[in-house]
Structure prediction request, 696 residues.
Amino acid sequence: MTITASFPRRARSRAALTALLLAAATLGSGPPVKRVPEEIQLSSLDLSKMRVAQVGGRNATPSVAQANKAIDGTNLIRIGGEQFATGVGTRSPSMLFVHLGGGSERFLALVGVDNNPLPEPPPPAAGQQPRRVQPPGTQIFRVLGDGKVLYQSNPLGRGEAPVLVNVDVTGIQTLVLQVKPAEGQRGGAANWAEATFTTGGARPQAIDIPVEPRTILTPKPGPAPRINGPSLTGVTPGHDVLYKIPVTGTRPISYSVEGLPKGLKLDRKAGVITGRIAERGRYPVVFKAKNKAGEATKQFTFVAEGLLSLTPALGWNSWNVYGRAISDSLARVAADAMVAKGLIDHGWTYINLDDGWERTKREGDPLNEGPVRAEDGTMIVNKKFPDMKGLGDYIHGKGLKFGIYTGPGPTTCQGLEASWQHEVQDFQTFANWGVDYIKYDWCGYSSVLKPGETTQQLPVLKRPYQDGRKALDQVARDIIYSLCQYGWGNVWEWGNDPDIRGNSWRTTGDITDTWESMNGIGFRQVGYSKFAGPGHWNDPDMLVIGKVGWGPRLRDTGLTPNEQYVHITLWTLLASPLLLGNDMAQMDDFELNLVTNDEVLAVHQDELGKAADRVAKNGELEVWARPLQDGSLAVGLFNRDEMDTKVTVQWAELGITGKQTVRDLWRQQDLGQFENEFSSTVPRHGTVFVKISPVK
Ligand code: GLA
Prediction:
């Protein structure tokens, strides 16, 4: 039996209920028990196993769930106007897996948002306003048993009275206690007060959150050549072109191109095309790649119409891995690894420096090395970068492209020199170094707003990106313009205005390598698909798979294997730029499999350039679909819940009818023909990614 009704009760009545239930069990009603049932406090379990939302940034001491205390570790548990001597204080989103082994009959608790005074804010940094601590939003408490929802509360707010959870857990092997913020709400301190198991058999035991094996779903490419990458590239007439034909297959491979436009030349051994196209126009060509196992061809078009990034960028950026510790040598290691690990053969192209290559005037900063600019105003790089032009040449020499970071303010987010009032000069300097991609980060621009100007005003938000565009148009080089201002003012609505023409714009704040961050950002992109298209993409921030670190010390991503499949699948569907943020040199077969599946990448690079949007949602289950050039659909079935669940997508939700072939893109396997709908069991925090095409 399941008791799902939630109603406020006073603690005293709950204690009475426990006594009654215990008495009933003792008297022998219900299933036979091995011994007299006892009450086991949730707080007596190993609470280090409870997942607790962390606060205070990456360097803060991690919070752990508290026995008989609120999460602050000091106050008693307080819900509404009541205080409790026993229970567990946690912070939502929070989760605990408990092995019951069929030994318990009942789980009882009084739940609610913690109502102790809010903690003091951390002391503000010099010159900064003190931050206010935000109260938690409404929270949902859930009890799951062996893959079923046994109990779910309504959204409970701070100050609300405690709610009784009274769940029959007879026969349950694994129980999950979960607290999560209601849709669109902030997490925060939350309590399982007076939480007890009534246990007659095996004692409940807190266990680690089960993590699935790192399964490699994709078969390895064969020995014969296969030409990957997009079917077109956008260039500007008269500007330098560099295009590496990405091909898998046994080396050596010899390349040829039919119909190469005048001004371009091919390196037949490297498969790299360079030169310039003088005349505006579209230039169809045929790529050929040959090795001892066979030959491949691919139709391709050079679109010399001045629009760049006709498909979203594929590359690497230094931030999520090295943070400020990025250096010339680490950038070279990245370029080497992109080639050595074969990523380049699947279309991965950009090696982008993020913040950390510049100098600063700021006292006490190790990158304060004297003047930040030469007498003529040219930016001077810091000692970690002895030769920027040399670095650009090195990257290009491998058939890769070079990206850099700056901002429209006087300083970057790290307080290093940025391009305010030097826009044209800096962009020209970058062009001289061979830069192909600029990430233009707002940060320090707030400090140069005039009196009365705020970031709530659209003209103010647009101005630095209009100025940046004007500057970039004065530079005779094809440079991708990547807007970074965290989605302010719904940038997706104007980032492609004629006077800005951003090739992408961040739609969110910074990502980090947790499920909450990644899935929170990813699934929030609802309704944005109409703003993306060839040359202009939504950017929900960079990837967080593999070895990440934001500094000199690296660690494995906090995402589970299935969560990593969700990350790549969703970002592929969203047609976001894919920028790896990990140490590529340390990528293992699992991680490489995630980013070198050519059928998945073909969706990402699809010529139609339409991004996915959500087509169905049922609680924690979602379906996102992206139309493709060949008339089929790329469809992601997602399970954001805590247990494996069947997900079904109806043809009506996809706007299609009739017989359809469904192909599993991660496994590169046809699943058969289906009519009306397709369903599949999708693992916890996991995905099934398919291509659905009409039967011909
Ligand atoms: C901001 C951006 C990040 C990164 C850092 C660098 O936080 O959003 O992506 O570029 O600045 O300081």
